UniProtKB/TrEMBL annotation:
CDD domains: MDR_like_2. It comes from Kitasatospora viridis. Coiled coil: none annotated. Pfam families: ADH_N, ADH_zinc_N_2. This is NADPH:quinone reductase-like Zn-dependent oxidoreductase. GO terms for molecular function: oxidoreductase activity.
Amino acid sequence: MSGKRPGHHTTGRVPTMSLAISFAAYGEPEQLSLTELTAPQPGPGQVQLKVRAAGVNPLDWKLRAGYLTGFMPLELPHVPGLEAAGTVTAVGPGVTRWSVGDEVFGSVPAAYAEYAVTGEELLAAKPADLSWEQAGALHMAAETSFRTLAELGVAKGDTLLIHGAAGSVGAVAVQFAVAAGARVIGTASPANHDYLRELGAEPVAYGEGVFERVRALAPEGVHAVLDAAGGYLAGSVELTGGTERVIAIVDAQEAAGAGVRFSGTDPATWRTAEGLAKVLELHAAGTFVLPVRTVLPLAEAAEAHRLSAQGHGRGRIVLTV
C-alpha cells in the first residue's frame, strides 16, 4: 500500500474526494489498498468529518478476513473502521449539535479515510487536553464496556471478574466498574499486573489454575464475569453458578456452547452516547487512562491489522490521516 499521495479535491469548502483504505475481497491484510474515492456527503442528521485519527479494532481485521460474514455481512468493496476523531467539515440538513470546525470523536463507520460521515448523535466534543490519537481510539472500548456492564447489571458492592483486563475493552471496563463501586478482579499476564493495580483492579495470572486463584482471592464468590479474552467461559459459568451474569465479546461459538450471551454484533444495541459520556466524566476527573502503543499512517493499515491480530501489547493501535 505504497504510492504517491494524491491531493483531495474540493468544491468550495466541502471536499468531494477522499483518500481511503478499502478491500474488494475477504482475505489477508494485503487485500487492503489505498485509493481515492468520492468523499461521502452528509445526509439529514449527519456530519462529515476530516478524520485525524482512527482506532484499529480486532473487529476490523476479523471482518476483513471474512470471519464474521454470518453475523455482519459487508458490501464489497468496503472501507473499514468503526471509530475516529476529527474536525467537522460539513453538516447535513437538520443538524443542531455541531458546526463546521468543531472537534469531535465517536462512532464513525468507514473511518479509515480522509473524510467520513456519521450521525450527529454518535459523536461527542473532544476535550482540548485529549489527544487526537486517544480520542480516535475511544468509542469501541467505551461503548462495549458500558453496554456489557449494563447487561451484566454490575453495581456497587458487586465483585466482577474480567478476563483480558489489560486489553483495550478490559481496561476501560475495569475503570467503569471501579467508578461504579464494584470490586474488580482482572486476569492478565504478570507483566500487566502493576498496570491493572493502577486502574483499581486486583490482578490474577492467566493460564492453568486461574479459577483456583480467583477463588482464593474471592472466597465469597464472584457476581459477574466479562470475558474479553476468550477461552474462559465454561469455568466462568461454574464460578458464578449460572449463565445469567456471564457475557462474552470474543468468541460467539464458545459463547453458544457455554450457553452464555454473546454481546456486540448488532449495532442497534450499542450504547454509544452513554459510553462516551462516561469516558468524558472520568477524563474530566483526571482518572481515565487509555494507553496508545502504536501510531501508524493511514497507508500502513495492513501493518496495523497484522499487529492487532497478534493480540500482544498493551494499548491501542491508531491510524493517523
